[in-house]
Amino acid sequence: MEALLSAITPASTRLPGAAAAPADAERAGLLDSALFAHAESVSNRFFGKDVYYRGIVEFSNVCENDCGYCGIRKHQRRARRYTMPADEVVEVADWAFKHRMGTLMLQSGELNTPQRLKYLVEVVQAVKARTQALDAEQRSLDPSQLPKDTTGLGLCVALSVGELPREQYQTLRDAGADRYLLRIESSNPELYASIHPPAQKWENRVRCLRDLKDIGFMIGTGVMVGLPGQTLRDLAGDVMFFRDLGADMIGMGPYITEAGTPVADMWAAQFEGVDKGAHMKEMLTLTTRMNALARVTLGNVNIAATTALQAIDAVGREIALRRGANVLMPILTPTKFREHYTLYEGKPCITDTAEECQKCLNARLSMVDKKLRPGVWGDPPSYRQSV
Ligand code: SAM
């Protein structure tokens, strides 16, 4: 814990948002360079230059929860609500498979209703059936003849649809879903409580993560970096939380304010008078430092260079790929829905098409001497070792 803490804090007196003294800045720069180089070498050892894609479809912004930071929370009045028709999601899956994405992530607001469960089961089954058939056609194989291993036919389906009862997770797993992403948001229960309404309990998030793992999902989790009230000790605790949970994938992003949310007001009160642009650049460094520490501590898990990094810096994700991250998540949501899935201010790519996103990312990867590993699920070696 103390070692992690000192690596997160190269300039030991610095707290998020506070300016470093010049002497500290020089020392911090040297320590950062060493940490980032080490993280890159660990990534290279496990993944070489390979980057895995997870195409993400934000299929609904309807949400019954009220997370204090989120632009699609139930009480965010500006959000125009939508749910994509199931067949449009399958069309996107078709496109993703043909463009060799390997994994499709279905993400939404949270809704614990029988109708939503039915919709999800139908979509998961249809995506699996459709892409397995396409794959079998291509490989001239009968899908039923294939061994049930972790890298199978068609697309790997990942879900990111929030907290549900264990039985629903089991139903979704039985329908064919392979992975589940549920960020813990913060491993500190008190900080978690300060950014969620009382009905949303930290203990339930942990219960969900444990149930998901127990049921056999590959699990992803993560936190937001730079939340009001967050300390560097909280962040060190987050890395230990990931390790203790046995996460297969980590997705961390900077916290970005969204007007009209309670946490944006908390942020404004804490950082009053701070140069926001400079602060957010610091959060980019802090987030990539967290990615690097996760890489060094957890070894061969998958780590995402998240979209929120690009909201801060046009090449934020590319920077992350040189500091321990090995996964990119191009947004495949049809353009007509994108602007309504606004989690935070300045979310990038909201007017782009899936084609544009993919072309853009391919070009960006070559800039940082990485290359797409197309058409594979990209299971983390950590998961393959544990099954
Ligand atoms: N509802 C599902 C859940 O909570 O797991 C998935 C959708 S939720 C919108 C996806 C993630 O967006 C959250 O886990 C959170 O970390 C991130 N997010 C929401 N608001 C954000 C903000 N203002 N800044 C940065 N990330 C944010």
TrEMBL record:
It comes from the Eukaryota. Residues 49-294 form the Radical SAM core domain. This is Iron hydrogenase assembly. It comes from Micractinium conductrix.
